[in-house]
Amino acid sequence: MIKITQLRKEFPAKDGVFTALHALDLEVARGEFFVLLGPSGSGKSTLLRCVAGIDIPEGGEMTLDDRLIFSSAKNVLVRPEDRGLGMVFQSYAVWPHMTVYQNVALPLTHGTRRIATGKVRDRVMHALSLVQMETYADRPVPYLSGGQQQRVALARALAVEPVVLLMDEPLSNLDARLREEVRHQILSVTKRVGVTVLYVTHDQTEALALGDRVAVMHQGRIMQIAPPNDLFNRPANATVAEFLGKVNWLDGSIAASGEINTSIGRIRAETAGLQGKVRVGIRPSSLQVSETSTGEANEFGATVGAEAFLGEQIELLLKLPGNTELELHAPRRARVRWLDKVVYCRVDASEVLVYQE
2-240 maps to which CATH number? Predict the structure, then answer.
């Protein structure tokens, strides 16, 4: 569906040229919900804008539904309006002087995506029904909430029956409750329609909840592409692991037994192919805590130095030998005070992340 080969994008800079995309390769399957995840400046929005035709790359090739839309070698550049795309922006981009119906109808009555006048109303109302906004058709857009405005923007993008739907941080302007609500709506609607989606976000939870596959980007490069579960459990490197959530890091070295020597003791983990100095990562959610020792592997005594009740979970700061501190996230349960207690924390060997230094 989408095939990108050796795509390169540069911008002028004071000291010459800033390379925003370093010869990227990427393929997105038909009907796939594909997420580009990364921090600000990682190149994810630039990549989306190149696919949209808003930014013109310096090199590489892009095909869309087996149609060449850009090639530096073949001097091909298809105009944005001729690519058959739908786009949903971060800022909603709805017209405040129009009603909901008029906003969705506009691309169907003007420009290159026009359809027969007699078909417009059916297409508009169908698009609005997909996002559960058909009863708001006659309402002026300024009288809608942020979440409703974003659903109108989604309906407008779907109304033109795009080859690919591009979404650039569409939930970042919404509060936490609305983000979750609209996120579920986006996933439900796009799967029902069967449209291919290329979605940009900096929010790890959003990416893991939405994506069939996720590409983690960093400094203009793709670090790893994988389904959400694989990405979280088997990050390719420390950069990917850290971007997907909090990680407790320890310096270690591989012992002859294959175990890892660290400041808190020996840790068992998968160390095949590794030797010498390594970096050991343990997610706070992977740690288990108890008041008595189980005697199992990877268990360490600690003192609780700080405790925070976060509603659905409890956050503990554990103080261990060697002036080491680990953060632990435990499920909420009966209100037990952990502060200043001596406890035992344990991590399963399969959940320990290990990377060569």
Answer: 3.40.50.300
CB 41 within 8 A of CB 11: no
For the domain made up of 246-356, the CATH class stated in words is mainly beta
Strand partners, 324: 320
Domain regions of the chain by residue span? 2-240, 246-356
Residue 334 pLDDT > 70: no
Specify the pLDDT at position 244.
Answer: 92
- 306 CA to centre of own chain: 31
Helices (H), the chain: 44-52, 100-109, 117-130, 146-159, 176-193, 204-210, 228-233, 238-243
Residue 138 confidence (pLDDT) above 90: yes
As given in the structure block, the two tokens for residue 277 are 């100095």
Three-class SS state of 195: coil
Residue 333 — very low, low, confident or very high, per pLDDT cuts 50/70/90? low
Residues whose CB is less than 8 angstroms from the CB of residue 92 and which lie 6 or more positions away in sequence, other chains included: 146, 149, 150, 152, 153, 173
